[in-house]
């Protein structure tokens, strides 16, 4: 890497550190969910995970053979499920106060998530490289990623663009509402009714990250677990899903387009 790139990267990192510090101060941290909401949140989260896995592994694959049509149909169902979870959160008395999806937090939340991702990007690159060294098939990639790269190679921009929108907006929003908004909040509420101190927060972040990791392919577990821990800690710190959605979406965009812009053989 040239000296100019190192200087630019260093300046970006310092700038992101300053931004994230200021953004954290600007976020009005809400209290953790009340213990009596824990069971409802946990049951809702487990039901959401079961339905999502049924859609991904059973219903859609049986109805649609494969290809982009299956991908878009699957994520349309997940978008509907995510919307139902947002509405359902208000039904059980959670509302915007727990999910932190109020509109005044959008700008600060996005800035917070983007700045934090810039901070952790060197670690992301290093962790992915380490993961490739650990697995038996270092060139193995997820099926969705392979489909995306194939369509880019075919010179069909419409499908890669649409897939990017889905994976950068729809998927992060759904997964953050389900895992951080419902599952982590539910665990935090239940454990908070049992013990005080930092224990409930730490345990809820770790357990949610483990469940989040388990739904992904096994050869991606190491980087996904790290991502889940960062997202969980970010939600615990801000009590808003907007920073988590922004960081998650930026990570997905980076993962999608990095091998396109910087092919491994170059």
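Sequence proposed for the structure above (266 residues):
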């Amino acid at each position: 890497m040239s000296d100019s790139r190192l200087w630019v990267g260093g300046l970006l990192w310092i700038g992101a550190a300053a931004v994230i510090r200021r953004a954290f101060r600007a976020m009005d941290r809400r209290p953790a969910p009340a213990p009596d909401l824990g069971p409802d949140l946990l049951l809702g989260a487990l039901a959401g995970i079961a339905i999502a896995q049924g859609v991904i592994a059973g219903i859609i694959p049986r109805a649609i053979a494969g290809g982009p049509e299956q991908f878009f149909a699957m994520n349309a169902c997940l978008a509907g499920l995510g919307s139902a979870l947002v509405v359902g959160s208000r039904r059980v008395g959670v509302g915007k106060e727990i999910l932190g999806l109020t509109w005044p937090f959008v700008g600060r939340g996005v800035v917070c998530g983007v700045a934090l991702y810039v901070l952790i990007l060197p670690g992301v690159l290093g962790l992915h490289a380490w993961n490739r060294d650990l697995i038996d098939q270092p060139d193995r990639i997820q099926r969705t990623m392979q489909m995306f790269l194939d369509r880019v190679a075919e010179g069909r921009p419409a499908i890669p663009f649409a897939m990017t929108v889905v994976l950068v907006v729809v998927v992060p929003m759904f997964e953050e509402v389900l895992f951080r908004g419902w599952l982590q909040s539910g665990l935090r509420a239940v454990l908070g009714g049992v013990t005080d101190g930092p224990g409930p927060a730490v345990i809820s972040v770790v357990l949610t990250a483990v469940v989040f990791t388990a739904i992904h392919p096994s050869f991606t577990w190491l980087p996904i677990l790290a991502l889940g821990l960062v997202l969980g800690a970010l939600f615990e710190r801000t009590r808003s899903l907007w920073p988590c959605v922004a960081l998650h979406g930026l990570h997905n965009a980076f993962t999608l387009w990095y091998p396109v812009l910087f092919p491994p053989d170059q």
